[in-house]
Structures
1.
Amino acid sequence: MPSRERNPFVKRNQILELSIEDYAFGGKGIARIRNEKGDFVVFVPNTLPGQLVKAQIKTTSKKYAEASLINVLQPSEDEIEVPYQDIPGAPYIQLPIEIQHKYKKESTLSLFQRIGNVPNIEDLFDEFIGSPNDFHYRNKMEYGFSAIGYDRINKTDVDIFTLGFKRRGVWWMGDNLEKDSGLFDKQLEDNIKNIRIYCEKTGLPPWHGPKREGFFRYFVVRKSFKTNQLLFNLVTTSSGLDQFSMSKFIDFLLSIFGERMAGLIHTINDETGDRTIATTGSEKLVYGNEKIVEELLGLQFEISMKSFFQTNPKAAEKLYSKVVDYVLEDQTKVDNTVVMDLFCGTGTIGQIVAAKSNNAKIIGVDIIASAIEDAKKNAKRNKIEGLQFFAADVGKFLTAHPEYANKIKTIILDPARAGIMPKTLQKIIDLNADRMVYVSCNPATQARDTALLRDAGYALKKISLVDQFPHTAHIETVALFEKK
Ligand SMILES: C[S@@+](CC[C@H](N)C(=O)[O-])C[C@H]1O[C@@H](n2cnc3c(N)ncnc32)[C@H](O)[C@@H]1O
């Protein structure tokens, strides 16, 4: 966190016009203020090189400041028109995908140079893998109802019935989705407007954040790319439920989506906190099936509304293929040995490795019990043998099982955004495996761990980048480490 130390360039809350010159990891534009006192950097999230923007300084330090974007005064020459509604979830959609890839690659590799202390990272770089679909790639979306909307013309809030996404940084204000955002299912998003009109006509109110009251709260949709089906979850409060006809709502959804509609879950969520999680509450299946089936690299996975599943399944196939390539690169280190899949989620990676190797024993560990249950069911469904799954914290699991030390040749790691706790990483190092294949959705924590691994004798051999989320700042990495 930047301190509040003074600098001779900007003050907190100051509003400035800034030219964005570069792109920093994580989606921040870099502007520079130059005067007789020198150069000063200002980071402005969600901006692009070439834009002229109006921004407000939020925090300052001696060396740099962080600002928030007020509006774009002049677009970048790189920007193109797209036929989609702009939403906070896709800040770079106007930038051609090749330029997005270039920014992601350069900013990620520079992290490994700076934080990971890997000066020759360019030599170790293997491949940049784009998403097979640049648009309509997501398999899940959460839309919120709100009684307060945004008037895009007058740039102010208004009391209207809305269904769409929250305005960036304004938790209580919704912004109507009038058409396809380009990220999720086109037919679904082109109909969000009609779903909103239907709900408004019931006369029941949408959620009013500040007043903490209302009936309609969220509409969540999960899609299977394999079957093209949609699973819905309507989240409401119980207040006014007796005036809402669920059977008419089901008929309405069927009239639009027909056989594409796999099922409808109704969740009653009466929580009044500002930041309630959309789908908490009591759920009941009111139509069809509560699960959909997805396929990844020929294996089938049954997914419920809540279980974690890769959001871009087509890109996940590419990611998993790369992981499996690295794991199986030297097959002798996998066949007839134990492979650990740590932070395994629903066990997808371990199952794919098991399916492609001879007699390998895979041990999967994840802290979420329901994910481990899904992992076991999916392994059975796919008839894959040699897998064992444990619901446990990785660190505690390794302390409780010292028998694995020196018995494992390959470890697969896929931690959550926060990365691996240093104590847990030490326990993983103590397993003394020949190599590790480390997948990360947050290369900043992976770069930090790269330095720790190197000190423990593991050298980075190769790294690939996978663009799982086009039009956002996110990037996934797959890195191969080997014992020196
Ligand atoms: C990025 S996901 C891994 C997904 C999985 N490899 C897949 O492809 O489906 C990270 C996983 O780490 C798990 N996790 C987070 N902290 C953990 C911990 N301390 N011990 C074990 N698992 C943990 C989460 O439950 C989550 O499933």
2.
Amino acid sequence: MDNTFLAQFYGKSQIYTDIPNHLYKDFNVKKGLRNEDGTGVLVGLTRVADVVGYKYDDEGHKIDTEGTLYFRGIDINEIVKNRNGLRYIYEEACFLLLFGYLPKQSELDKFCKILKDNYELPDDFLEMNLLRMPGKNLMNKLQHAILTLYNYDEDPDNTDVYETLLKGVQIMAKLPSIACYAYQSKMHYYEHKSLVIHYPRKDYSTAENILYMLRLDGKFSEKESNLLDIMLLLHADHGGGNNSTFTNVVISSTDTDIYSAVSGSIGSLKGPRHGGANIKVALMMDAVISEIGYTRDDNKIKDIVVKLLNKQFYNKSGLIYGFGHAVYTISDPRAEVLRHYCGIVAREKGREEEFEFYLRFERIVKDTLLEMKGLTACANVDYYSGFAYDMLGIPRDMFTPLFVISRMVGWLAHNLENKLYDGRIMRPATKYVGTINEYIPMEER
Ligand SMILES: CC(=O)SCCNC(=O)CCNC(=O)[C@H](O)C(C)(C)COP(=O)(O)OP(=O)(O)OC[C@H]1O[C@@H](n2cnc3c(N)ncnc32)[C@H](O)[C@@H]1OP(=O)(O)O
Ligand SMILES: O=C([O-])CC(=O)C(=O)O
């Protein structure tokens, strides 16, 4: 495509289209839907999850606190701590998020059975949509696959709340197979690897099936599936304000089908400032480690951190992926859990040197962000998740798709809540700040 003219039009357009930055302040526009103090503009009420990173003192000043994440009022740390050998901790969290209470064993069994009965994909779906049409990016492929599921639904445009629950649970159950097969298909087509297709097993949990479907020999240890189960739990929801969940609710508020809304959420989660940060962290750490190795020299690490912030290294975005958060400043509770597990697994797998480097890098990034940008920022969930997945032998292509598998339940829970208790089409306003112009006939321009 010859872009010369487009470049010329684009260059000329800026005289006509420019919006001076001060106007945002003049009209009190909340850029990024944020208040002056960085907190999010209130756009809804929820009882699904609470993301706590600050409180207000008596004078109304924002005070940063350690991060806490509650699912239906229960601290996620309590869920992780009380695991007690349960194989279905993620499924238990799904029940909790969807129905608001902790299931009795019999209720959890019934819920898991519904998921298991829906694990498999419709006839010909695997062949027609995944094997014959491999995708070079799994997130885009997931969007495509979800939109295609619409065609297999007899009543896809039914947006009734209960129907949405049924459809959503079916999507949740099928996502692990879709993602794993999309990965296998990509590897086979683009990398000429052997095509591995294991059908999901009904005696396996979501976490177990993912490991089973990804591995050639289908084998995994209990420790590995336990860690993945916890990771799925940690990613399952993050309140109504995170970009992909908000996207879901915005799209659904038009009363469109759930397949369109989920596809939109996947598009949002792919972004490197959101869920896609987990791949960026892995790539950034590759670049850092190949430059300075697992050095214990803080100065060398600081130099590279400064270069990252000054847009002189890696992708020159100026961002350090895996750090910072819209709500958490002092700590992201999910990163705390993951750091703990990464330490344990790294020792078992002989990867202590790498883990210690991650710890040092984390400390220096935090100090440098404060020093250079005045920003109190912590490692977020995406900083340690890739390292953990890597130790589980999970390929990078699957990092963000795993987030989708896990977060689907959060999207669904907020979608249902919004349908039940808000239900109005989302329609904020923008202020026109251009001029009013005459239409000039062609011969006079
Ligand atoms: C699952 C998740 O979505 S967790 C988040 C995953 N994303 C990442 O890890 C990407 C890196 N982090 C970021 O881009 C940001 O911290 C976000 C998107 C997570 C949050 O963004 P915001 O809430 O807008 O950031 P915040 O208001 O705290 O940032 C203020 C300033 O600090 C900068 N900043 C924030 N995080 C970082 C970072 N990781 N590296 C460098 N600078 C940063 C911002 O660019 C901004 O600078 P500016 O005023 O010069 O433009
Ligand atoms: O809350 C956010 O903005 C991003 C996040 O951590 C998540 O969605 O898990």
3.
Amino acid sequence: MTDRTVLHVAGGAPYDVVVGSGLLGELPGMLGEGVRRVAVIHPRALAATGEAIRADLSAQGYDAHGIEIPDGEEAKLAPVASFCWQVLGQTGFTRSDAVVTVGGGSTTDMGGFVAATWLRGVKVIHLPTTLLAMVDAAVGGKTGMNTTEGKNLVGAFHEPAGVLCDLATLESLPRNELISGLAEVVKCGFIADPAILDLVESDPVAAIEPDSAVLRELIERALRVKIDVVVDDLKETGGAGGHPGREMLNYGHTLGHAIERAERYNFRHGAAVAIGMTFVSELARLAGRLDEATAERHRTVLELVGLPTTYRGAEWGQLLEAMKVDKKTRGDQLRFVVLDGLARPSILTAPDPALLTAAYAEITPDPR
Ligand SMILES: NC(=O)c1ccc[n+]([C@@H]2O[C@H](COP(=O)([O-])OP(=O)(O)OC[C@H]3O[C@@H](n4cnc5c(N)ncnc54)[C@H](O)[C@@H]3O)[C@@H](O)[C@H]2O)c1
Ligand SMILES: O=C(O)C(=O)C[C@@H](O)[C@H](O)[C@H](O)COP(=O)(O)O
Ligand SMILES: [Zn+2]
């Protein structure tokens, strides 16, 4: 085992996020006393890993069951949750049993939702295997399922009992998935910890090497940002004194989620968020809230690691319709997380439609 870092998430149900390599041995300790049955939920791509974890738990005396779900966003659909509930029901899962998720953000979102809803809530431990899930999806208890009308429209807040970020799992992760995860890391740089941006800018190559010290530091910094935010405002009800609270983690997501939906989810979450962040940086600049240099820095840092900053897919009207169901919307007023400066997130409510189309034109080389 390499050196491990333990980050504590305080709150009503405190838990640890452990970062290191070869962490599987820590799973029984995290499961705690009294757990007899364990459901290991994993995507198809991680069938071998999921089975190895199930077999290991079984060898240690647990009644362990594997549940295979689809890869990517196809997992975040009601029939998949229904299938998982059926397995839990048939294996006699009780409130003292536990769900373990092994996978990326789509697996932690779906498995977390199943754990939140089965018997109105059972223990869940996340073993994130993508960069994005390690720094973001596995921590903070937000779960999300898609419906025909949009992204993450169904879900619950259900905190894990622990998170094990085994860095060795990143070795098999396709490069474009690693890059996608960096979008959420860069997001943390813009909203709260600019040292993240300095690190990426000074060594963009190391930032996308799974075993580099730079990536390790980026992971831990991004995790600290996420943990600080969710400890203050777990259920996204808002921060003190008009501060956006947890909504700040939605930076770039208003347009990002609309793009994912318009592209029928054949578009990586991180890539969509990268475009969404570039869009809101332009929106904030045009609204007179963000300086030109910080807006431009979005393009440079995202492009340095191979993330997109322009979009030429769906028509603006279609994206606007999709944004209306964003969870930050109140009535018919769209609300965007913007920056008033570096690491100064705030909310822009009901911007002038002309400003929105002007910001969209800035990221659309050939507008429709
Ligand atoms: N709940 C939250 O707070 C939160 C935060 C951020 C993102 N999300 C959600 O997370 C999802 C995106 O997560 P993601 O980017 O991790 O994508 P993902 O879960 O779809 O995983 C991407 C692909 O990589 C495969 N994979 C996973 N780990 C692997 C590994 N170690 N080696 C090889 N292949 C591997 C998966 O099977 C999948 O095909 C989105 O649905 C997004 O909405 C949720
Ligand atoms: O943890 C949060 O809060 C976030 O907003 C993190 C986002 O990166 C993540 O994609 C989240 O799932 C989006 O939440 P949603 O409320 O817009 O569905
Ligand atoms: Zn996200």
